Amino acid sequence: VQLQASGGGLVQAGGSLKLDCVASGIIFNLNSMSWYRQTPGKQRELVATSTDGGDTVYADSVKGRFTLSRDNAKRTLSLQMSHLQPEDTGVYYCKSDLYGLGHPTSTYWGQGTLVTVSS
Question: What is residue 90's predicted lDDT score, i.e. its pLDDT?
């Protein structure tokens, strides 16, 4: 299984970036797919999730600024980030969860991509 994340970089506050996560080795359309981020000294936090049922959930801190999308045919999860702020800085990780009976039965993490927002 591989979750290959890309698209991170350095951007000024107010700018935009798009992250992509390409999955292999999983049945993509059966998995809930998420982006998490982690900053030094803080726990990894959920940014947004796209469920296998078609729902999308965002963290309150990114609502209205970030847009999550998935292309099941291309096995790709994308995160369009706009109006970026310095507090959005962190390493962004892609995650897949396969659920069975309401519980994750198989979870994988990508390697992470660094997003740095300068003020």
Answer: 97
